[in-house]
Amino acid sequence: MSETMPEIPASIRVQSRANRPVFTYPIPEDARATVGIDSIGMVALTFDEEMQVMALMKGSNTGAAVKVQYELAKKSLQEVNGQALPLVGEARDRAWSDMTPQARTLVLRAYNDIHTLEKDVEKDFLKGKTITLK
């Protein structure tokens, strides 16, 4: 049984592609046949876009954590093989579902790459903590 996600209403769509950095990840040549694509382009999501995904997931309890991660990565995905994906709708969902599992895994890794800091930065951040009594 396949669940379909409701389309995001035009009134709450956040940003267009204009003036947003797109991080392009070329698929290594030796993996292209397996992955089925040559490159992906991703954007860093805004807080509002992340909240839109969370709102769409409200009430979904079957594998919710995995679904949220997939939906966030899918929303961040802007291009496949240099071709822009529609911002929302059936064509975007179809592109995602037509990807090989390996391609979806790479999209998830790219999403995590642009949305998290390097481990050394996190360590340095945590080392800088101070404790005060107030």
Output the keywords.
134 residues; alpha+beta; four-stranded antiparallel sheet; 6 helices; 4 strands; 10% strand; globular
Molecular shape: globular
What structural class results from the helix and strand content? alpha+beta
The count of helical stretches stands at 6
Q: Could you describe the largest sheet, including whether it forms a barrel? A: 4 strands, antiparallel
Order of helices and strands: EHEHHEEHHH
Structure description:
It is a single chain. This protein has helices at 32-35, 47-57, 64-76, 90-98, 101-115, 119-127, and strands at 23-26, 39-42, 77-80, 83-84. A hairpin with a 2-residue loop joins strand 3 (77-80) and strand 4. It contains 6 helices and 4 strands. Helix content is 46%, strand content 10%. With 134 residues, it is α+β, with helices and mostly antiparallel strands. Helix 2 (47-57) crosses helix 3 (64-76) and helix 3 crosses helix 5 (101-115). Strands 1-2-3-4 form a 4-stranded antiparallel β-sheet.
